[in-house]
Amino acid sequence: MTRSTLMAMALLISFSCQPKKTEKQSEMVVEAKTEKTSLTAEQLQQYETAYFASGCFWCVEAIFESVKGVKEVFSGYSGGTETNPTYEDVAYGRTSHAEAVQVYYDPKTITFQQLVQVFFGSHDPTSLNRQGPDRGPQYRSIAFYKNTEEKKIIEDYIAQLEQEKVYDRPIVTEVTKFDKFWKAEKYHQDYERKNPNNPYIRAVSIPRLNRFKKNFQSFLKEGTH
């Protein structure tokens, strides 16, 4: 491995979704200046929900928000047992939760099956407890289901991917019954959009979003190409 390759890897690893000691305060200032424009709770009740975990939720939220038929996406925590998890506890692996997203979508425009395709097509489901530079079970791949129909959709799609040998390694995505979603702290919502110059966003999140857009152009909202 060349010296330049090692330096590039070290640079990438230095960017992480995990909080820095001096990072949280400055991020909260950004949030105080920029509110998340979301639908009201009453409006959101008109739509279906889906839940996924596939690495840093800053990246995952931005990906699903680019998808047609998706009305709102929230970053948060799910898949664990602890109540009221915080970002620092989850990001540092002090809980059994994973960083996850809550997706509100219009099933008349996009189906749950298509959202599952977005999920698998926008991360590496063969990477155990890791996505990009972020390591630990808090970044594991999870497809949550709320009923037997959704479970079958997920499992059937995994079987299809394996049969078609889309990946060189086994898929390690957890297929987990949804229990509870804990919404992340306010400053995490729309983090990628509000912090385009953040080193992690520039080095990891934006390239990941652009790869998804390139491969799933027919799934994108108008104006997001």
UniProtKB/TrEMBL annotation:
PROSITE patterns documented for this protein: PROKAR_LIPOPROTEIN (PS51257)
Domain Peptide methionine sulphoxide reductase MsrA, chain residue ranges per copy: 49-200
Keywords for the protein's UniProt record, in alphabetical order: Oxidoreductase
Enzyme class: oxidoreductase
Residues annotated as catalytic: 56
Reactions listed under catalytic activity: [thioredoxin]-disulfide + L-methionine + H2O = L-methionine (S)-S-oxide + [thioredoxin]-dithiol; L-methionyl-[protein] + [thioredoxin]-disulfide + H2O = L-methionyl-(S)-S-oxide-[protein] + [thioredoxin]-dithiol
Domain of life: Bacteria
GO molecular function: L-methionine:thioredoxin-disulfide S-oxidoreductase activity; peptide-methionine (S)-S-oxide reductase activity
EC number annotated for this UniProt entry: 1.8.4.11
Pfam families recorded: PMSR
InterPro entries per record: Met_Sox_Rdtase_MsrA_dom, Met_Sox_Rdtase_MsrA_sf
Function: Has an important function as a repair enzyme for proteins that have been inactivated by oxidation. Catalyzes the reversible oxidation-reduction of methionine sulfoxide in proteins to methionine.
PANTHER family per the UniProt record, alphabetical: PEPTIDE METHIONINE SULFOXIDE REDUCTASE, PEPTIDE METHIONINE SULFOXIDE REDUCTASE MSRA 2
NCBIfam families associated with the record: msrA (TIGR00401)
Family note: Belongs to the MsrA Met sulfoxide reductase family.
Name of this chain's protein: Peptide methionine sulfoxide reductase MsrA
Native source organism of the sequence: Flagellimonas lutaonensis
Taxonomic lineage of the native organism: Bacteria, Pseudomonadati, Bacteroidota, Flavobacteriia, Flavobacteriales
